[in-house]
User: Fold Enoyl-CoA delta isomerase 2 from Rousettus aegyptiacus.
Amino acid sequence: MAKMLGARWCPSALRSPLQVISFPACQLHVSRRAKNADQKEFENAVTQLKLLKKDPGNEMKLKLYALYKQANEGPCNIPKPGVLNLINKAKWDAWNALGNLPKETARQNYVDLVTSLSSSSASSSQVKPGADKEQQGSENVVVTSEDGITKIMLNRPTKKNAITTQMYQEIILALKAASKDDSTITVLTGNGDYYCSGNDLSNFNTLPGEIEEKVKSGGILLRDFVACFIDFPKPLIAVVNGPAVGISVTILGLFDAVYASDKATFHTPFTHLGQSPEGCSSYTFPKIMGLAKAKEMLIFGKKLTAGEACAQGLVTEVFPDSTFQTEVWTRLKAYSKIPPNAGRISKQIIRNWEKEKLHAVNAEEVRVLQERWQSEEFLNAVMNFFSKRAKL
Ligand SMILES: CCCCCCCCCC/C=C\CC(=O)SCCNC(=O)CCNC(=O)[C@H](O)C(C)(C)COP(=O)(O)OP(=O)(O)OC[C@H]1O[C@@H](n2cnc3c(N)ncnc32)[C@H](O)[C@@H]1OP(=O)(O)O
Assistant:
């Protein structure tokens, strides 16, 4: 659990602009010693910092960040980030506050700070090298085709199948390929105990550029992703093997059948994350389950059991977890024998009545979400998620 922010709170890389919650620019009161740390001591301190068990808190992280930059690059030499860019601005303020502090002094102060932190928090020798290495390529989305069924499986079980930006793109490509292959039906499912924990909350970090660019490219990615589900021309079935969160729930309204294990739950905690509904759920959920139940889910984040989701029409059928895979795949194999063209045409005549409407809903939901992504509510929610999990 500690790996996510731990890996990103790497002073040498400083990959994550969201690793520090917004707080006032720090005033540094760092003790100076006569002796100056050499480069080796400094590098050891960088390593030591990564091994700390206890999170030193964001204010301390900002101080360390500033000292690290000063020690390596000298006085702050980058343009001041815009006011909306809260995190980078806090980091800039901290670095800039060091003024012309000599590199050697910054290096020594950095070493002193880490030493004082280490003595109050025993360092761990149990960090496994490469433990947070991301799977590369298409391993996180596995596509197989057999017996008239194309199966798209989310395969990132250690992260509860949270969807990275790369996975969104891979799913889009997989759906486009499946729409043209010779399968009759297409299935989306998850590997492991979760179906999917929704959008990977570190996506905002990994998208390139400043906040405005992230918002723009995130919006385009989301719109294209949902559009693929709206336009998918064949019967599309969700095999919900475990809990489902966020966007993995909202797009279920665009599927033709949803089969769920009785261990599955359905949760859309958008407002808690400072966000708003997507996946066309602002339109499909009220239509499927009625306004009152849809609002409980989409505004108040009520989590449904599989049985409740079935009673409300979001799920087609629930199976006992012990027999889930056998029963569902037997059913799907039978369904895959329907005449493929009749299957496609029947799906399309149902979908076509509202395709235009769904695309308009998608565009509007993305527009509103893009505003949300620039809100402090959203940034704080993401920070809270990772801070709770981070030891450093
Ligand atoms: C925002 C701009 C990006 C643009 C990209 C494209 C546009 C997409 C827009 C869609 C927008 C939002 C839709 C949503 O999906 S909102 C919902 C997001 N999901 C969540 O809030 C769920 C967060 N996760 C949890 O609450 C819990 O992890 C859990 C799912 C309830 C499971 O709890 P657990 O205790 O059983 O397991 P846990 O130890 O927490 O998790 C195991 C490891 O997996 C990591 N992880 C789980 N879910 C996510 C996630 N959604 N994002 C990132 N990482 C996740 C967790 O951090 C653990 O990792 P580690 O072992 O600590 O390294």
Notes: The domain at 141-391 is CATH 3.90.226.10 (2-enoyl-CoA Hydratase; Chain A, domain 1).
